[in-house]
Specification:
Elements: H1 21-27, E1 34-39, H2 50-57, H3 63-66, E2 74-80, H4 89-100, E3 108-110, E4 134-142, H5 148-159, E5 165-173, E6 184-186
Parallel strand pairs: 1-2, 2-3, 4-5
Antiparallel strand pairs: 5-6
Length: 190
């Protein structure tokens, strides 16, 4: 999106508690107009999710004598990744598209259809950031038939090919618990 000239940005909070409002405000550009805070938790009955509350109630405590060095941006909050859903670029675009609206949806959900509170953002799943050079493969195999390691080996060896950028997913069904809790192998070589 930024490569297409849209004015968007991202701040990744790596250490949530204790939340440093000074560092957060220092990372914000002076031209920021709106902030969408994404939490991967749902706090029913609260005024919002934990990070949303910190960001929403914190800018007034900022540096320069408790005043912001720029106009107070509008702050909305939402949830992503609920039900172990993968957070895709199409969902990121849905959040940014909603943030551009004059009255963006607050306390939204992205990635699942929230048919109880109807707070879901519409997602255009046809949106993709992949180029035509990306090849997608899906390998199936039973955990006991010897296809797990060859599948991973094949997907990794094809990643060394300079002509393409493969993304392989290995889906396996096991009869007994696996030594590793991860049953999906995602390969991303960019």
């Amino acid at each position: 999106m930024a490569k297409k000239g849209e004015k968007v940005g991202l701040i990744k909070v790596r250490l949530y508690r204790p939340f440093s409002m000074d560092h957060f405000l220092a990372a914000l550009p002076k031209t920021v107009k709106a902030i969408s805070v994404l939490d991967r938790t749902k706090e029913p009955g609260c005024a919002g999710e934990p990070m949303y509350q910190d960001v929403n109630h914190g800018p007034g405590r900022g540096p320069v004598g408790g005043k912001l060095p720029f106009a107070m941006p509008k702050v909305v909050g939402g949830r992503y990744g609920l039900s172990s859903k993968e957070f895709t670029p199409a969902m990121v675009k849905a959040v940014y598209d909603d943030l551009k609206k004059p009255a963006p949806k607050n306390h939204f959900t992205v990635g699942i259809n929230d048919d109880v509170t109807h707070t879901s953002l519409p997602v255009d799943y046809s949106f993709s950031t992949e180029t035509d050079a990306v090849k997608r493969c899906l390998f199936y195999g039973l955990g006991s038939d010897g296809t797990v390691v060859p599948t991973r080996t094949r997907s990794r060896s094809s990643a060394k090919s300079p002509a393409s950028t493969p993304r392989a997913t290995s889906s396996m069904t096991r009869r007994r618990p696996a030594p590793s809790p991860c049953r999906t192998c995602a390969l991303d070589q960019t």
